[in-house]
């Protein structure tokens, strides 16, 4: 089933990393000299998934131009779809309905990378008979936690950057059956709000726990961290 399509949401404004996104869309911000979008696609293609639908919006022509030049040594089938400048995540998914046809498809964000085993994710999805699977992750905490006792401020314990306090969050890397698109009303629909809440209420969403590396490029700090990992040969998402 490696002809399963990979839909990548790549149309947002990326306002939290405006230092970069004033001139390019966030998925085109570079790590190790390549757009993070390329890194995401490599994660999929290395595992045999080469059919991409990129949902473009803000500065989408930059993405189109990049792929029009051709990607060396890659057997990728890429369709860049203009899903609108102001369209929300749900609306972007709804706009590519005709491109995915009747088969389940991967969906992920244009700023999140992981050393995820996509075959295991697919196996998990096929095993539960529900129309939607989200990958749950525990990101690294950004700050150490102090436990402070009494009025004197005695520190009784310190934990360096715990993993998100044990909470699991939406890490992207979804697998969706096309009927999930029926949960989306239109361009103004944020997929992570009403559609996902409704899927949960209907008992139609399962979570695949990914315990390995995961990180999202949201801020300049994130870019610097990822670049540093790449330069030091510690880029755990680099499975190729």
Question: How would you portray this structure in words?
Answer:
By secondary structure, the chain is α/β, with parallel strands linked by helices. It has a single domain (6-138, 165-231), classed as Spore Coat Polysaccharide Biosynthesis Protein SpsA, Chain A. Helix content is 27%, strand content 25%. The chain is built from eight helices and 14 strands. Strands 1, 4, 5, 6, 8, 11, 12 and 13 form an eight-stranded mixed sheet that branches. Strand 9 and strand 10 form a beta hairpin. The longest helix has 12 residues, at 220-231. The protein is globular and about 65 Å long. 38% of the residues are buried. The model has no long low-confidence stretch (mean pLDDT 92).
End-to-end distance, in Å?
A: 21 Å
Average residue pLDDT: 92
Number of helices: 8
CATH topology title: Spore Coat Polysaccharide Biosynthesis Protein SpsA, Chain A
CA radius of gyration? 19 Å
Q: Architecture, according to CATH?
A: Alpha-Beta Complex
Q: SSE string, helix = H, strand = E?
A: EHEEHEHEHHEEHEEEEEHEEH
Summarize the structure.
This protein has 240 residues and is an alpha/beta fold. It has helices at residues 18-21, 36-45, 60-68, 89-95, 97-100, 118-128, 194-201, 220-231, and strands spanning 6-10, 30-31, 34-35, 51-56, 77-82, 105-109, 112-114, 132-137, 145-149, 154-159, 169-170, 174-176, 205-209, 214-216.
């Amino acid at each position: 089933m490696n002809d399963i399509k990979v839909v990548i949401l790549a149309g947002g404004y990326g306002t939290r990393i405006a230092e970069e996104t004033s001139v390019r869309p966030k998925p085109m911000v570079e790590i190790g000299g390549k757009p993070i979008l390329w890194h995401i696609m490599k994660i999929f293609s290395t595992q045999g998934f080469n059919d991409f639908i990129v949902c473009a919006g803000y500065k989408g022509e930059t993405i189109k131009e990049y792929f029009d030049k051709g990607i060396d040594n890659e057997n990728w089938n890429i369709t860049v779809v203009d899903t609108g400048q102001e369209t929300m995540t749900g609306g972007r998914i709804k706009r590519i309905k005709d491109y995915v046809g009747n088969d389940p498809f991967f969906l992920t964000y244009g700023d999140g990378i992981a050393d995820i085993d996509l075959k295991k994710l697919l196996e998990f999805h096929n095993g539960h008979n529900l129309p939607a699977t989200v990958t749950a992750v525990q990101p690294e905490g950004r700050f150490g936690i102090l436990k402070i006792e009494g009025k004197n401020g005695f520190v009784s314990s310190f934990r360096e950057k715990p993993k998100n306090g044990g909470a699991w969050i939406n890490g992207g890397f979804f697998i969706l059956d096309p009927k999930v698109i029926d949960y989306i009303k239109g361009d103004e629909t944020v997929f992570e709000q009403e559609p996902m809440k409704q899927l949960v209420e209907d008992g139609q969403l399962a979570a695949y726990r990914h315990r390995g590396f995961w990180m999202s490029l949201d801020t300049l700090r994130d870019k610097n961290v990822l670049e540093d990992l790449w330069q030091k040969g510690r880029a755990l998402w680099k499975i190729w």
